[in-house]
Design brief:
Helix content is 43%, strand content 14%. It has nine helices and six strands, in the order βααβααβαβααββαα. The two termini are 28 Å apart. The structure holds farnesyl diphosphate (FPP). Farnesyl diphosphate binds next to helix 1, helix 2, strand 2 and helix 3. Farnesyl diphosphate (FPP) binds next to helix 1, helix 2, strand 2 and helix 3.
């Protein structure tokens, strides 16, 4: 089965550029091209949700020039791909601290979400100004200060889940991390409780449809137990 929801930590843009003696921003430019290839591939494969970690709550610590460049890329992506979204029925969504985004980026995300809200194909969730801990803090804030519907009641996993940024989106089945680092980097901390991880050494700008297919094939071989045990592990599967 194709995973319904794939999350990707797109890492390695800087290393890709350094290997070629190019500036880091060139790596991000190539990273955007890779994102376009992978969105198309995921859409063609019948994936329902694709969350792309484009900018973390910690990424503001980078040089102002690099931050500005990445924000500019996001804006361009949202504007230039509209025809592609329309042709492929792709819906754009956002996760992260929307209020902390530069006004023009927030406006463009809002516009893209509005323009694509009725599209029924792949949903692309841009994690922008996103941190897993930050999302949980904001969820708790909504529980404490939010609407009457969210306030009060027992603190349960379901109550917290309903206060996350996109409660209707199922948890990711598969989380891919490119460029070989073995850490979560604050990505979908709550939602990834039972996700399968796939780490690839390939730098993000080099990613193609074939790499996505390999990750999905690897996922398809995994046995998901959600903390339980299967009958074969229990040894109770004999006639
Ligand atoms: C990580 O590489 C990449 C980022 C922090 C930015 C990712 C942004 C894009 C690919 C462009 C925008 C994408 C979309 C979908 C709008 P790094 O710079 O940390 O690489 P390094 O670890 O090799 O230095």
């Amino acid at each position: 089965m194709v995973p319904a929801h794939i999350g990707i930590i797109m890492d390695g843009n800087g290393r890709w550029a350094r290997k070629r003696n190019q500036v880091r921003t060139q790596g991000h430019l190539e990273g955007l091209k890779a994102a376009k290839r992978i969105v198309k591939a995921a859409s063609d494969m019948g994936v329902s949700y694709l969350t792309l970690y484009a900018f973390s709550t910690e990424n503001w610590k980078r040089a102002a020039e690099e931050v500005g460049f990445i924000m500019g890329l996001v804006k361009r992506y949202l504007i230039e791909e509209m025809d592609f979204y329309r042709q492929n029925g792709i819906r754009i969504r956002h996760t992260g601290d929307f209020a902390g985004l530069p006004a023009d980026i927030g406006q463009e995300i809002r516009r893209a979400m509005e323009d694509t809200r009725d599209f029924r194909g792949l949903q692309v969730i841009l994690a922008l100004n996103y941190g897993g801990r930050d999302e949980i803090c904001r969820a708790v804030g909504r529980m404490v200060k939010g609407t009457a519907e969210l306030r009060g009641g027992d603190i349960t996993e379901d109550a917290i889940r309903r206060c996350l940024d996109n409660p209707d989106i199922p948890d990711p089945d598969l989380i891919i991390r490119t460029a070989g680092e073995l850490r979560t980097s604050n990505f979908l901390l709550w939602e990834a409780a039972y996700s399968e991880y796939y780490i690839s050494d390939i730098l993000w700008p080099d990613w193609t449809e074939a790499n996505l297919k390999a990750a999905v094939e690897d996922f398809q071989k995994r046995e998901r137990r959600y903390g339980g045990v299967t009958s074969s592990v229990q040894g109770g599967n004999k006639p």
